[in-house]
Citrate synthase
Amino acid sequence: TGLTTYDPGFASTSSCRSDITYLNGEAGILRYRGYPIEQLAKSSNFLEVSYLLIFGELPTQSELDYFEQQITIHTLLHEDMRQFFDAFPKSAHPMAILSAATAGLSTFYQDHYDPKDERDVEVSIYRLMAKMPTIAAWSYKKSIGQAFIYPWNKLSYPANFLHMMFGVKAEPYEVDPEIAKALDLLYILHADHEQNASTTAVRLVGSTQVNMFAAIASGINALWGPLHGGANQAVLEMLAEIRDADGDTASFVARAKDKNDPFRLMGFGHRVYKNYDPRATIIKETADKVLRKLAPNDPLFEIAQELEEAALSDDYFIEKKLYPNVDFYSGLIYKALGLPTEMFTVMFAIGRLPGWIAQWKEMMSDPDTRIGRPRQIYTGAATREYVEIENR
Ligand code: CMC
């Protein structure tokens, strides 16, 4: 009909129906499949939450055992993938490697990635869940010039990742269970967040009926940006900048308010939350615990708390309802765990993976799904006559 709605950033468009995540931004509520995030953070673990998101219900013990076993047996990358890492420069950002390698994985499974075949979908889920931490850890090893460490499948999901990241020989790196638990918790808190930019990218690309690896690779690229998952890296860089400016938080708050200055407080504000992000509440508590143990003298935690306090008592931030989001304190924990800043967004990607998979699966099975194809309001030139190049 030509009748369309102009809605930049899709701020008031519901692009799908979904049973997966409930988010009430005014009240600061987040639930996966009906379960409050606080309960899952306290009592569940990442693989159980992944199962819940992907299959819709909490697993029985035998369902969970099978799920874990299937993920465990797929953790190895095809040996030919090693050369893939060699081709990148040493300074390659690990998010670039992660997305390229995830799309690249598809080349090894071309006969088994039909998005409409139930068995293909199931095995693709295991492969993605299993191999992403291996790719992530190897991208880091590449950047520091160390040998790749193969997965040690007796370890838990987060411990295996830490082993591949920080181990330097075949035996398992001695993983502190508390650290593995903190990492697992961060994964849970990142596991889904309804129709954010990366999930929307996965759904949109997936709506073309491409294979799941390609759709998820698009999500990884969308997550990379500093306004989305890349904010966790940007927060740490900002806190270090404040430290180097002698801890002058006030001037940074002033800059964030200045409309002529493009600077924003990274880790603050959210499209949907107009209240404290419930994930940030849990992450702040965890940061407090982890940092007390691992990095008691990190000045950045104090700076972060000061910055939060300054912003939350400032009229600009109060009026615009800008609160700390999930990315504000997560980077401090990753840093305390020994992860380099460039890896922070990769950690977000590992955590968000089950959400992307669940949303892709839901999109594929929804009879209302059509190829994503928004309209536009054309504002360009009216018809004009072509002019030969010598006459321009
Ligand atoms: N610092 C200063 N001012 C801000 C900030 C901020 N962090 N965030 C929003 N504002 C202002 C913004 O300038 C605008 O003011 P005005 O109405 O006068 O033009 C108002 O608040 C509304 O902001 P918006 O940019 O229209 O909101 P949005 O929904 O389009 O963007 C956002 C949301 C998260 C991109 C934005 O708040 C932002 O850039 N935050 C910093 C980056 C960040 O922390 N991103 C992580 C998001 S949470 C998890 C994730 O996705 O990774």
Notes: The pocket of carboxymethyl coenzyme *A is lined by residues 9, 196, 227-229, 231, 256, 264-271, 320, 322, 325-327 (CB under 6 Å).
